[in-house]
Amino acid sequence: MRLASYRWQGIEGWGQVLEASIVPLADAWPCMRTALAAGVDAIAAAADGARARIPLEAVEWLPPVPRPDKILCVGLNYASHAGEAGRELPRYPSLFPRFADSFVGHGQAVVRPSCSEAFDYEGELGVVIGRPVRGVSAAEAMSCVAGYCCLAENSVRDFQRHSAQVTAGKNFERSGSIGPWIVTRDEIDSPADLRLVTRLNGQVVQDASVGDMLFDVPAIIAYVSTFTTLHPGDIIATGTPQGVGMSRNPPLWMAPGDVLDVEIAGVGLLRNPVVAFEHEVPA
User: Fold this and answer.
1) pLDDT in tens, 217-240
2) How far is the C-alpha of 125 from the C-alpha of 195, rounded, in Å?
3) Which residues are in the Fumarylacetoacetase-like C-terminal domain (predicted)?
4) Are residues 114 and 44 in the same domain?
5) CA 117: distance to chain centroid?
């Protein structure tokens, strides 16, 4: 089952994605977070009884969970990426937070800031939490997963290096994207079997197996839940593989007019144009 959030005729909603339409389900639960808390089986039952449909071409895609309680990202989670960055392999997951307003949905423009040209792409697998969890073991961690999504985490590299903390370079407004939807966990046998491909203007720049991660999905959830409670709708970005722009000679930065694709077979295709920052506040 594919679940998405959207804006249609000026109103935010969410629902099940079919081939050419969305089944709106906001009458059952007001938002994706509350629906995920009810459980995927309950969502499927509500969708089976729904009659209304909205054409896909009529909606504006939002991040699947527009306002999650937490977005946590794992850095240096592929040995190949740690190597190209000149970093030692981490003993534990390297974590940093992202703010919800640093992400847009599928088809929406990601924004290169006016203060930097070092705007780098980072394709990743996103993991969406389905139930509250604290202190879960790796053996039980997958039971907490609602589903998966494509994620372009992206970074403003020079700001990332301003200090030992990467927060500034990782949280420019509208610099990353998530979507188009959540594919529920029952649709994916094992996230380790997934293939992640990132394309910039149609050219492959990253191509890796999710199974190459240093810390797999259960290990990440177990580690994170050691120190914080994960809630339904929380998102974990699991890290990017080698091929990022900063490690190329010369560096390959995203520029206005570019188009970035992150594709994970079985999960979806996330596509976003790149635009220059304008001083107007987005609606």
Assistant:
1) 999 999 999 999 999 999 999 999
2) 9
3) 70-275
4) no
5) 23
Which residue has tokens 């740690």?
A: 82
**Separation of alpha carbons 213 and 209, rounded Å:** 8
Return all residues near 54 (Cβ < 8 A) that are at least 6 apart.
Answer: 6, 8, 13, 15, 21, 22, 24
What pLDDT is attached to residue 280? 52
Read out DSSP for 24-67? Answer: E-TTTSSSHHHHHHH-HHHHHHHHHT----EEGGGPEE--SSSS
State which residues form the domain around 20. Answer: 2-61
Both 91 and 9 in one domain: the answer is no
Same domain, 53 and 169: no
Q: In this structure, what CATH number is given to the domain that contains residue 112?
A: 3.90.850.10
> Do 127 and 26 fall within a single domain?
no
In a domain, 87, yes or no: yes
Whether 2 shows a pLDDT value over 60: the answer reads yes
Distance of CA 154 to the CA centre of its chain: 10
